[in-house]
Amino acid sequence: MTHYGPFVEEWKTEKKLIQLAKENPDRIFKRDGTWYCPERETYFKSLGITFCLRSSDEHDDLFAANLEHLSSFLDGKARPVSDDALLSIKKLLDKRGGAMSLAALNHAAYEDDTPINKYIEFATPRGRFRFDDVLKAIADQQVFVDLGYDDLSESHTTVVCSTPEQLELVKWRRPPPHAVSTHFVLNVEIGTEFMFRGRPDVYTVTALPEGKVLFRDATYNTFETLGENQFQSLMFSDEVQLLSPQKIIDELLAENPPSPTSKLTRQIADLSYCEGLKRLTFLIPTANEQSNAGESLGAKQVTRRRFRSLL
To answer: 121, 112 in Cβ contact below 8 A?
Structure first.
């Protein structure tokens, strides 16, 4: 069930869909990257149901990997998160403004030091939680992670949010993963990454002997040396562009703290409104378009399915 009524999806492998399309090109076909089966769509529409034919190529590999990571917590056999443990997790998240890294939650989790080859599990002290409680809460959508963006196996870069609204704000406020620095840093350090203007390769500073800058490429096939003055001159002329370091999630959240819950509804509404306007702009012709056409064009024709995807 969706906000728009019943919705049925039929999934097949891309290979199978291509085979069916060759056998019945009028019954099954692909257009603009989407598979269609008009016969079934018409039948289900008569029942008030939206039908959609889907391909295995639409699966997100990262999302699938995250589901596999959570598989033992999704099969219904895992112990549910106790009310006390969930409250402890939520309190810690709220203390951090509603969002923090999975690694920070893991660090705060309770460990009873049971030997790894033993199956004895002591009761979790009141007011504490285990790391398994966090993963179970994610699986049960009691706390929230963008499983299509964050990799659960990389806990330092995964953001856990207390509410869906906090997660939406985290998505909107994500910085580019590896931005170019716009200021000059003359005292580069070992490990500093940079690019030469107009080249796609990224180089890393490997050593800084007196008066020199040694660096290599990402494949370790190229090792070069520049004088310190020459390197600084290239920086000032913008021929060398330093790359800002990739910060861990906790540093980014500290620089851009999550908004208090009281402000979330308004911010989400504003962001959704702006995004909706941007997506739907193409539906309304401009005055120039109408003038060029010599008549009032009205809204462009779009299918109900396409319109829903824009909202």
So the answer is: yes
Give the pTM: 0.51
Copy the structure tokens of residue 51.
């039908």
- What size, in residues, is the chain? 311
> Which parts of the chain fold into alpha helices (H)?
14-23, 38-46, 61-69, 71-74, 83-95, 102-108, 131-139, 164-172, 228-236, 249-255, 261-280, 287-293, 304-310
Per the rule left: phi > 0, alpha: psi between -120 and 50, beta: everything else, 244 is: beta
Q: What is the pLDDT of residues 151-175, one digit of tens each?
A: 998 888 899 999 999 898 888 877 6
Question: Residue 21 and residue 34: Cα distance in Å, rounded?
Answer: 13
Closest CA to 235 of 287, 190, 181, 274: 181
Q: Evaluate whether 178 touches 201 at the Cβ level (below 8 Å).
A: no
- Residues with Cβ within 8 Å of 195's Cβ and at least 6 positions away in sequence, in order, are 180, 201, 202, 203, 240, 241, 243
What DSSP character marks residue 283? Answer: G
* Tens of pLDDT, residues 244-271: 665 556 666 666 566 555 555 555 555 5
- The answer to whether 192 and 242 are in contact (CB under 8 A) is yes
